[in-house]
Amino acid sequence: MTTPLVEMDGDEMTRILWQMIKDELILPYVDLKTEYYDLGLAHRNETDDQVTVDSANATLKYGVAVKCATITPNAARVKEYGLKEMWKSPNGTIRAMLDGTVFRAPILVKGIEPGVRSWEKPITLARHAYGDVYKNTEIKVAGPGRAELVFTAEDGTETRELIHEFKGPGILQGIHNTEKSIQSFARACFNYAVDTRQDLWFATKDTISKKYDHTFKDIFQDIYETEYREKFEDLGIEYFYTLIDDAVARVMKAKGGFIWACKNYDGDVMSDMVSSAFGSLAMMTSVLVSPSGVYEYEAAHGTVQRHYYKHLKGEETSTNSVATIFAWTGALKKRGELDAIPALGEFADRLEKATIATIESGRMTKDLALITSLQDVKVLNSQDFIREIRRTFENM
Ligand code: NAP
Ligand code: MG
Questions:
Q1: What CATH number did the domain enclosing 306 receive?
Q2: Which mutation among 280, 303, 311, 320 tests ligand 1's pocket best, with the greatest number of atoms within 8 A of CB?
Q3: Dihedral sign from CA coordinates of 313, 318, 323, 325
Q4: Domain range for 42
Q5: Whose CB has fewer CB within 10 Å in the chain, the N or C terminal residue?
Q6: How much distance in Å is there from the Cα of 305 to the middle of ligand 1?
Q7: Which of the 8 DSSP states describes residue 241?
Q8: Is residue 271 domain-resident?
């Protein structure tokens, strides 16, 4: 390796898996260079969360990061870890600094069949991660009155729109987005489609929301025509826009193998549907892509707290490390591509194949054993599953 990967260590069971993956599957084969940041909650607390900011800055500097799952503190965690304050979600901080879009794709293996019969290839969900209902302002209306939307320009000019004349109690909600954020979202989606050579679908409710959703549609179309149409045509891939209802209906009959870009709320809901229909959150990769071409790879699941407490009590766990392994292979492949080191990409491809082959041969963790259609399955503990992948890798 020439440029280091930004390595963001994390919490609980995934922190345990992190070390096992490095020891068994990466360090024996790769002359690994990383710049290490410990995002474990104790260290975030010691550094007043500065380590999270530093790790995001390092990602902007080097271009590729691999991240372990981390605890997002709540009241219980403040007590459990004796925190100075309820630190913000590291993912939220990193996402805001990288101005990114999150892409999630399932890892398909034979024996774990998708709930939707027509799906043969992965469906990647791209979720806009800024604004709309996630940054809303709400009012509970107590009784009759007039609700208006008011925008005051810097020069004091007001624009007003009547929302509703309330005859009785009701509810109100104000949401927004920015052109800059929507443009970043669009470019991240187009770049990802070009990178992975897949078609891109984008859907909103523009027939009803003639200014709000329509602006999303227009921004995507403008950027496509001026910056991407040629590249898409050269690669033989397609961009199209359709209504969200139509997209939902089409997805159910599609074969997969495309990217489905969604506004923030649609992406939140649809990614849970797509991932559970494909089988398991532990078989879902996640990558944050910024419009400037910066990549952060992680697993889609959390720190698997329940398994960690069992581990602490000395009990055996059977935690699935596949998504975390694929976070490493994704990051190594991207580093190899950017630095023109084909051996890194070849290693990552081989490790992915070994991981899938291990499961397809019937050796897997408990979460997969519960849903597989394979017969004669051997359920392995967390450590043995990783060792079994190493054995498969050595024999390939
Ligand atoms: P979780 O870690 O995703 O686990 C929820 C449940 O899903 C587990 O208890 C387990 O079910 C199953 N599961 C998830 N990943 C698995 C794996 N790799 N192998 C086997 N089973 C797996 O979610 P959580 O327990 O709600 O959250 C724990 C912590 O993670 C929280 O502090 C949260 O803030 C954090 N979190 C972080 C991220 C991130 O950093 N990207 C994302 C989400 C949550 P069983 O117990 O039934 O076996
Ligand atoms: Mg959700």
A1: 3.40.718.10
A2: 303
A3: positive
A4: 1-100+293-396
A5: C
A6: 6
A7: E
A8: yes
